[in-house]
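User: Please predict the structure of the protein below. I'd like the answer in C-alpha cell form so I can feed it into my own downstream comparison script.

Assistant: Understood. Taking the following sequence of 60 residues as input:
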Amino acid sequence: MRLQDFWERMREEFGPLADSFARDHVMSDLGGRTVMEALGAGIDTKDVWAAVARARESSR
C-alpha cells in the first residue's frame, strides 16, 4: 500500500482526527508504537493499517 493511500484511508476512517490518532494512540499490535512511530521505524503501511483496523474494530 502506498503511503498516500494509507493516509487517505486514515482520513476516511477518522476524519479530522486522523492526525491526532496517528500521533497519540499507542497500539500494542505495533509494538507499543503510534502510527507515526511505526511508519518512521519502517513498518510496512499494510501492517500498520491492519493494526489500525484491529484497534478500531475492538473499540466498537
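That's the full C-alpha cell string. The CA atoms of residues 24 and 34 lie 6 Å apart.
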